[in-house]
Amino acid sequence: MAEFVPVAGAEDVGEGEIRAFEVRKTKVAVAKVGGTFYAFNDACTHLQCSLAEGDLEEVTVICPCHGSEFDVRSGEVLRGPAREPVETYETRLEGGGLEIKL
Ligand code: FES
């Protein structure tokens, strides 16, 4: 059953940044946009490149390998070649720490 798991300190991911964390054997990317944290699976659904190594433009993450674009809020594909959305995870701040529901 999914439950919230502590991942990092709230200040570990800066505004406009993406960082990857290993959470229960899953590599999760966390982006901070407008003060809100968005968590999603780090593996691009095209050929599994790390999305945390890509660029973040507002709420869009751009895969460094072939340029697929995903909405970090929903995981939805905004631009191919990827066709499948990335999985997203709920986030919350708890006592100064960032937690992800996984
Ligand atoms: S691996 Fe991400 S676009 Fe190809």
Features:
102 residues, mainly beta, Rieske Iron-sulfur Protein, four-stranded antiparallel beta sheet, 11 strands, globular, binds FE2/S2 (inorganic) cluster
Describe this structure in words.
This is Rieske (2Fe-2S) region. Belongs to the bacterial ring-hydroxylating dioxygenase ferredoxin component family. This protein is mostly beta strands and 102 residues long. The chain has one domain (4-101): Rieske Iron-sulfur Protein, CATH 2.102.10. 0% of the residues lie in helices and 48% in strands. It has no helices and eleven strands. The chain has strands spanning 4-9, 18-23, 26-33, 36-41, 55-57, 60-62, 69-71, 77-79, 88-89, 91-94, 97-101. The strands form three sheets. A four-stranded antiparallel beta sheet has the order 2-3-4-9, with no helix packed on it. Strands 5-6-7-8 form a four-stranded antiparallel beta sheet, with no helix packed on it. The mean pLDDT is 96. The structure holds FE2/S2 (inorganic) cluster. Residues 44, 46-47, 49, 63, 65-68, 81-82 line the site of FE2/S2 (inorganic) cluster.
The largest β sheet comes out as: 4 strands, antiparallel
Low-pLDDT stretches:
none
The average pLDDT value, as a whole number, equals 96
Task: Give the full name of the CATH homologous superfamily.
Answer: Rieske [2Fe-2S] iron-sulphur domain
Please give the number of β-strands.
Answer: 11
Please report the number of helical segments: 0
Strand proportion: over 45%
The name CATH uses for the topology is Rieske Iron-sulfur Protein
How many structural domains can be distinguished in the coordinates?
Answer: 1
List the quaternary state of the chains: single chain
Shape descriptor: globular
Amino- and carboxy-terminal Cα gap: 8 Å
* Rg (CA only): 13 Å
Bound molecules: FE2/S2 (inorganic) cluster
State the strand order across the main sheet. 2-3-4-9
**Which architecture would the CATH scheme give at its second level?**
3-layer Sandwich
Helix content: under 10%
CATH class: Mainly Beta
Helical/strand content category: mainly beta
Q: What sequence of helices (H) and strands (E) makes up the elements?
A: EEEEEEEEEEE
Cofactor: [2Fe-2S] cluster
Organism: Rubrobacter xylanophilus (strain DSM 9941 / JCM 11954 / NBRC 16129 / PRD-1)
GO molecular function: 2 iron, 2 sulfur cluster binding; metal ion binding; monooxygenase activity; oxidoreductase activity, acting on paired donors, with incorporation or reduction of molecular oxygen
Pfam family, one: Rieske
